[in-house]
Amino acid sequence: MLTLQIGVLGILASIAIGIVCTMIQYFKVPFVRKAVSVYVEISRNTPLLIQLFFIYYGLPKIGIRTNPYACGVAGLAFLGGSYMTEAFRSGIEAVDRVQTESAASLGLSGIQILRYVIFPQALTISFPAFMANVIFLLKETSVFSAISLMDLMFTAKDLIGLYYQTTESLFLLVVFYLLILLPVSVLGSIIERRMRYAGFGS
């Protein structure tokens, strides 16, 4: 349950971060757009474990107190936000510029074009990358044991230390991760097929 809670909260936060950062890039907000680009590069090119250590051990050095649970959610959101940003950005850029120009010629405002023309198509185009990011982030929860979070990996290592039943513990670890990830993967495939049948996506 702890693994699921942190995974869901981290993914929701990463979606919110991804949407905000994508909007900043889309509207070309001065200065902030550069900061978003720097954030994406730093986040995507550093391991989650290092990010967790920085949040958990580094922030208290400057007076910002945290706990393992909040650190896990924040770390997953920080990493996932950059991946979601790139997924959403690629979806928006894949929409043909002719459609934007046609919508503008009909008198739609910039917000209306984004809402009614670009966003629906960008969502369906970026959905496969979005689902891949969700699965990736759920798997990344396996490193949370490094900051003393009693997630699946921590529990498996604890059982191995107590009973020395390595094979059984690792087998159950695989089973529980499959129970979490397989339904997400199957649901994503179903939604993706429905979007294609509806005439969206590739």
A few lines on this structure:
The model has no long low-confidence stretch (mean pLDDT 91). The chain has eight helices and no strands. With 202 residues, the chain is mainly alpha-helical.
Task: Summarize the SSE layout with pairings.
Elements: H1 2-26, H2 32-44, H3 48-58, H4 68-94, H5 97-105, H6 110-140, H7 152-163, H8 166-197
Helix pairs in contact: 1-4, 2-4, 3-4, 4-6, 5-6, 6-8, 7-8
Task: Write the H/E string, N to C.
Answer: HHHHHHHH
* Tally of helical segments: 8
Return residue spans where pLDDT drops below 50 for at least 5 consecutive residues.
none
Please provide the count of β strands.
0
- Taken as a percent bin, the fraction of beta residues is under 5%
Mean pLDDT: 91
- End-to-end distance, in Å? 36 Å
Give Rg in angstroms. Answer: 20 Å
Q: What kind of sheet is the major sheet?
A: none
CATH topology: MetI-like fold
User: Which structural class matches the secondary elements?
Assistant: mainly alpha
Backbone shape = flat
Describe the structure.
The chain has helices at 2-26, 32-44, 48-58, 68-94, 97-105, 110-140, 152-163, 166-197. By secondary structure, it is mainly α. The chain has one domain: Orthogonal Bundle (MetI-like fold), CATH 1.10.3720.10. Helix 7 runs antiparallel to helix 8. The longest helix is centred in the C-terminal third of the chain and has 32 residues, at 166-197. The chain is flat. The mean pLDDT is 91.
